Amino acid sequence: MERVPILKIGPTLFVSIQIDLQDQSVVQLQEDLAEELVATRATGVIIDITAVEIVDSFIGRMLATIGSISRLFDAETVLVGMRPAVAITLVELGLSLDGVRTALDADQGLRMLNGHS
Amino acid sequence: MDELPIKSGDDVVRVRQHVRAAAADTGLSLVDQTKLVTAASELARNALVHAGGGTARVEVATSAAGRAGIRITFSDEGPGIPDVGLALTDGWTTGDGLGLGLSGARRLVDEFELMSKPGGTSVVVAKWSR
Q1: Quick one: B2-128 is in which CATH superfamily?
Q2: Scanning every residue of chain A, which has its alpha carbon at the shortest distance from the alpha carbon of B100?
Q3: pLDDT digits (tens, 9 = 90+) for B93-127
Q4: The predicted structure's pLDDT at residue B80
Q5: Complete DSSP assignment for B13-50
Q6: Which chain A residues are within 8 Å of B112, Cβ to Cβ?
Q7: How many distinct structural domains can be found in chain A?
Q8: Is A117 among the domain residues?
């Protein structure tokens, strides 16, 4: 199983998913992020899914859960870079990702976390 | 025609990659490729989680209207689905998901056929080029 790396840049944890996600990798990412949030006292999480070709119901649910977990550690999560085909498929699948903040790219996501938009 | 085993999470990823390549070769649009791969991911996971594994058979096919596309047959030898109608309802879940796996997969493809009995389930899906 491949692991998704987590980078800390200032008060923000940055996660860029560059692998074909299998279920166990997403579960692991959830646990790693929770630990990093506590260890680093980060106030924001950016999850970049630019390279993610599909988000199915399991992956989508896990991304939403990461948002909820980070809120418990007083951090805000923004999902950035969703591909148009992924967005169309997610909606048709019936997954709205309510409760997850999204931005077009990492730049906009960072500005969102810094309260500029 | 290719038959792929589904025995682990890595196999689910391999099924997705294989379906993606086949769908691209057949000329499905990027959105249709994504829908088919997403449906395949749901169904491969179902076979793994609920039946302990199975197989996915991926083939190039032609629709009744003469359009080229991909047909995938997922087979397992699991316990079967007691109530197929219920299992296809949005929100119905065995407890570890959102209940969108089967019903969502059905919405993402052009053809969907589910046969289930104690001792095995098979799901056939197809997506056609436009």
Answers
A1: Histidine kinase-like ATPase, C-terminal domain (3.30.565.10)
A2: A57
A3: 665 555 678 889 999 999 999 998 899 999 999 99
A4: 87
A5: HHHHHHHHHHHHHHT--HHHHHHHHHHHHHHHHHHHHH
A6: none
A7: 1
A8: no
Residues of chain B contacting residue A100, judged by C-beta atoms under 8 Å apart: none
Which residue is it, tokens 């046969």?
Answer: B115
Q: What is the dihedral of CA A44, A45, A46, A47, to 10 degrees?
A: -160
CB contact under 8 A, A57 and B104: yes
The residue-averaged pLDDT of B39-50 equals 94
Q: Cβ contact (<8 Å) for B104 and A55?
A: no
Amino acid at A59: I
Q: Which of B10, B30, B35 sits opposite A92 (nearest CB)?
A: B35
**CATH code of A23's domain:** 3.30.750.24
* Domain residue limits, chain B: 2-128
pTM of the model: 0.92
ipTM above 0.95, yes or no: no
The residue segments making up the domain with residue A84 are 6-112
Q: What is the predicted pLDDT for the residue at A47?
A: 97
